[in-house]
């Protein structure tokens, strides 16, 4: 295993940090993830619900920092 875990970003967030956290996990630019998520929201409509669920399920970055101590 590579030890990578998915967390919501607290340093590069717009709303809840979900897109920035996904971008950090996959080593991509957060703007690309945000644009893709916006397209999913406008084209399919299920992106808003998926974002809310992701914001609830994905732990925040501070959780990672607290677990490392």
Automatic annotation (TrEMBL):
Show the stretches that span the lipid bilayer: 35-59
Location of the protein in the cell = Cell membrane
Q: What is the lineage of its organism?
A: Bacteria, Bacillati, Bacillota, Clostridia, Eubacteriales
Q: Which UniProt keywords apply?
A: Cell membrane, Membrane, Transmembrane, Transmembrane helix
Which Pfam families is this protein grouped with? PspC
In the bilayer, the protein is annotated as: Single-pass membrane protein
Q: What is this protein called?
A: PspC domain-containing protein
User: Per the database record, which ranges form the Phage shock protein PspC N-terminal domain?
Assistant: 4-61
GO CC terms, sorted: plasma membrane
Q: What is its main location?
A: membrane
Domain of life of the native organism? Bacteria
